[in-house]
Recover the amino acids of this structure.
């Protein structure tokens, strides 16, 4: 009985580890399929150097379809230009001596290296130009044949990589972006609760920098995924996927709102203001946190977002409370720095409302596409 239980636990643990590494395992399988497919096609087409075809497929099969497509476009552009230019130099410039061959090599490399420096998408042009120039001396083919074969090798490898990325456990950058954005919203929900608690209850704000750093890390990840997702929209997924730009801009603005609130919460409110503003701020924080979590769920599920009415109504109540504080001149006699933080807090909450409206609009449009 104990042996069976131990074996069951071991299997469960193994399955858990496999699920945790499913993205890495899927990538490994895609790369393997791309390599084998490119080798098989090279054999059918009698490509002289299938090594380059397989290497191209391995290099261009990346973590997401968007990144694979971007890498393929850049690699093909650089290869084509490098092959044409390198082949032209090899054909039309005499190479009758070692010195002449060195001069031809310099004439090939210098312009292509400059192009790669000016246009990173052409970074493979230099490598391709050198191959086209040097391979004929090894394989005893003409410079023209070397150029054509190089283009064929890369085209076959690139096509194999794209097919593998689309067919074998495909990973869309858009889906990863949605997950990263949802994680950001969940962190923002935790952050706003902690920040308002520090402001109204004098709670220790030591966790605030950690929250801000983690939100920043997820924002950076979202930016990278958004760039990949834009490339996915070039292809067959364009009609189904929404432009990630508005979502990314809204996330950035929401983060700025939390930064301003964090600065305002660096020191607790004076006692006289805590009694007047504290309850309203706590309600706003609780509602905003729940709203952000519900929006994260809506983003992941592709469903309509929750209503903003409760949040906006409570923010309106806070605005009236704040106006009453000013009317009663409760800020008179307070340090200038404290007054500035209070006004900054009011501004940040108004901005938060506007940016939540932007996010609500994006989620509504996204749900309508589903």
């Amino acid at each position: 009985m104990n042996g069976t239980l131990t074996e069951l636990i071991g299997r469960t643990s193994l399955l858990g580890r496999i699920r945790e590494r499913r993205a890495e395992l899927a990538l490994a399988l895609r790369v393997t399929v791309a390599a084998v497919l490119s080798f098989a096609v090279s054999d059918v087409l009698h490509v002289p150097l299938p090594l380059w075809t397989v290497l191209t497929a391995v290099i261009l099969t990346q973590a997401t379809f968007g990144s694979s497509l971007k890498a393929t476009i850049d690699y093909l552009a650089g290869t084509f230009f490098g092959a044409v230019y390198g082949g032209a130099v090899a054909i039309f410039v005499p190479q009758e001596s070692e010195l002449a061959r060195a001069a031809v090599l310099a004439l090939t490399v210098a312009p292509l290296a400059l192009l790669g420096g000016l246009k990173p998408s052409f970074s493979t042009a230099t490598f391709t130009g050198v191959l086209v120039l040097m391979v004929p001396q090894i394989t005893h083919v003409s410079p023209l044949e070397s150029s054509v074969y190089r283009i064929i090798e890369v085209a076959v490898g690139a096509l194999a990589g794209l097919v593998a990325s689309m067919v074998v456990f495909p990973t869309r950058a858009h889906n990863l972006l949605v997950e990263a954005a949802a994680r950001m919203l969940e962190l923002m929900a935790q952050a706003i609760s902690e920040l308002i608690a520090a402001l109204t209850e004098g709670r220790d704000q030591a966790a605030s920098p950690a929250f801000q750093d983690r939100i920043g890390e997820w924002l950076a990840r979202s930016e990278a995924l958004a760039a990949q997702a834009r490339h996915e929209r070039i292809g067959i997924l364009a009609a189904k996927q929404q432009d990630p730009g508005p979502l990314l801009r809204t996330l950035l603005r929401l983060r700025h709102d939390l930064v301003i609130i964090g600065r305002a919460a660096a020191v607790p409110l004076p006692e006289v203001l805590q009694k007047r503003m504290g309850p309203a701020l706590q309600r706003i924080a609780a509602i905003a946190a729940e709203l952000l979590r519900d929006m994260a769920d809506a983003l992941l599920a592709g469903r309509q977002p929750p209503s903003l009415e409760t949040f906006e109504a409570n923010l309106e109540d806070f605005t009236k409370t704040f106006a009453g504080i000013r009317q009663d001149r409760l800020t008179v006699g307070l340090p200038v720095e404290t007054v500035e933080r209070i006004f900054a807090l009011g501004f940040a909450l108004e901005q938060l409302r506007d940016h939540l409206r932007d996010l609500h609009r994006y989620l509504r449009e996204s749900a309508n596409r589903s």
